[in-house]
Amino acid sequence: MGKSQERQQLPIEQKESMKWLKSYRAVTEVQKLCPQTRLVSVGDREADIYELFLEASKNPEGPDLLVRCERSRKRKAGQMDLWGRMNKEPVSGVRVVHVPRKGTVPARDATLEVRHAQVTVKPPKGKKYPPLDVWIVYGKEIRYGPEVKSPLDWMLLTTVEVNNLEDACARLDWYGKRWGIEVYHRTLKSGCKIEDRQLSIAEGLEVCLAMDMVVAWCIYHLTILAREAPDVPCSVFLEEAEWKAVHIFKRQKLKLFDKVPTLRKMVRIVASLGGFLGRKGDGEPGTTTMWRGLQRADDITATYVALLPHLKSGP
Question: Where are the beta strands (DSSP E) in the chain?
Answer without folding.
Answer: 40-43, 64-68, 76-77, 80-81, 93-99, 108-121, 132-142, 153-158
